[in-house]
Design a protein that fits this description.
Oligomer: single chain
Helix content: 40-55%
Number of domains: 1
Number of strands: 0
CATH topology: 434 Repressor (Amino-terminal Domain)
Protein name: HTH cro/C1-type domain-containing protein
InterPro entries: Cro/C1-type_HTH, Lambda_DNA-bd_dom_sf
Shape: globular
């Protein structure tokens, strides 16, 4: 049976945006594995809870509202 998606802010954002984890990672400028950790809320190295950086959450909100990345 497939595992349910985590109920984190980034998981909810990704679902609203209709993105795969890989596409979400690319949209936020993160590696795929880093994004997976942020979305799960669990560190792969320690198994302890982690919070995504505020910059990632702000970037997700900006992307959702149609703001392009700053170049």
């Amino acid at each position: 049976m497939p595992q349910a998606a985590p109920d984190t802010a980034l998981a909810q954002w990704r679902a609203r945006m209709g993105l795969s984890q890989r596409a979400a990672a690319d949209a936020l400028g993160a590696s795929f594995r880093t994004y997976q950790q942020w979305e799960s809320g669990i560190s792969r190295q320690t198994g302890k809870p982690i919070d995504p950086p505020l910059t990632a959450l702000l970037a997700a909100a900006a992307r959702e509202h149609g703001l392009p990345p700053i170049s």
